[in-house]
Amino acid sequence: MAIIVQKFGGTSVGSLKRIEAVAEQIIKTKNQGHQVVAVLSAMSGDTNRLLNLAKQLDANPSPRELDMLLASGEQVSISLLAIALIKRGYSAVSLLAAQIGLKTNNRFNKARILDIDTTRMLTELQQGHIVIVAGFQGCDDEGNITTLGRGGSDTSAVAIATALHAKECQIYTDVDGVYTTDPRVDATAKKLDHITFDEMLEMASAGAKVLQNRAVEYAGKHKMPLRVLSSFSDGSGTKIEFSEQSVASHPVSAITAHQDEAMLSLVGIAEHGRVIAMLFNELANADIEVDMIVQTALSAEKINLNFTVHRNVYQQAQLIVAGLNNVVQIDALSGNDRLVKISAIGNGMRSHTGVAASMLSALYDAGIEVYLISTAEIKISVLVKQQDLTSAVQVLHTKFELNAKK
Q1: 3-174 — its CATH code?
Q2: Which pLDDT tens digit goes with each residue over 79-124?
Q3: The pTM is what?
């Protein structure tokens, strides 16, 4: 009997009716002869509700206590699903992450999984039970409850599937697979039957919200097969696989948009080697991730520097830059937190030239201003105004003929 791990997101368990539908899906998989481990998020809206309660008491609540609070959402959804399954005559047991020995570090709100003790889960499966595990959460060495950050249930599911040597990890969500772009932005987007791990990882990090990038990275590292499916309709979904042959004939497989970009610009930096080292050390110490970086020379003595951060840490990054300006010479500082990053992604870029030229020409012809450009082996990204998001995505989706792909 193969083990199948199925993860259900918040909208999939957003009501009692949806929980009963999830129960039927799990029963269907169980009746196919599989052992099933279900990993659940909190019911849709619960995490935000709990977070709002905490912030009504304290704008900056204790990270440890916040994790204790937020982790309670998954306890509700897993117990309700177990009740629904038992009512239908199937043996089920709901377990918190701490009860299955899911160990993390003690970085509250953004914990990383260190180890999983599979003993309890394997015992329950051998006894014929359906195992239902709380996603998003873990436990550190001191017994503190931790959470994995937004989208952490995806990572929980992949890690559990890996530890159990599951046949497949199935991610059930509110979409029926991975698309060539967001269908809400371009109605001509097409569902992909399969996509490579490299492409999916780039898509997840570049704004596609189907899967958390840490989950894809974990799956790729451990060679765990993934499939994205809809909990609202039948279908084979999108398989995320290791083979690159199926997409190599086309340079671009998808267009993504990351809407939370902010750019800081430093003009006329003297002693730039020392300044840049100081700046990025300060940002790293503040746990601020830097995305795109572009450096240009003004003269032998001075440079300009542009870099992007997530919009929610823009003000914090501004304070760090302003503080730096008090101790070194910088001619001018500016910023913009109303930008988006548009990316073209595809394994076919490895064997095709001219993708950047086609991309920039299409945007220029459409009158879309490009602020920054960054390239990687299978991804080209540009920074544009927030107001140009829809038109930029549609222009590039059409340019690379993704609306015609089967």
Answers
A1: 3.40.1160.10
A2: 999 999 999 999 999 999 999 999 999 999 999 999 999 999 999 9
A3: 0.84
Task: Yes or no: say if 111 and 104 are a contact pair by the CB < 8 Å rule.
Answer: yes
DSSP calls for 320-356: HHHHHHTTS-EEEEEEEEEEEEEEEE-GGGGT---HH
Residues 6+ away with beta carbon under 8 Å from 206: 256, 258, 341, 343, 345, 379, 381
* Domains in the chain: boundaries: 3-174, 255-404
**CA–CA separation, 387 and 368 (whole Å):** 10
For residues 2 and 166, is the Cβ–Cβ distance under 8 A? Answer: yes
CATH class of 255-404: alpha beta
Phi first, then psi: give them for residue 33, nearest 5 degrees.
Answer: 100, 10
Q: Which has the closest alpha carbon to 308: 228, 392, 384? A: 384
The angle formed by the CA atoms of residues 22, 26 and 32, to the nearest 5 degrees, is: 150
What SS3 state is found at 265? strand
> ∠394-396-400 over CA atoms, to 5°?
120
Helices (H), 195-265: 197-205, 213-222
| 130-155 pLDDT tens trace | 999 999 999 999 999 999 998 899 99
Across the chain, which distance is largest between two alpha carbons, in Å?
A: 77
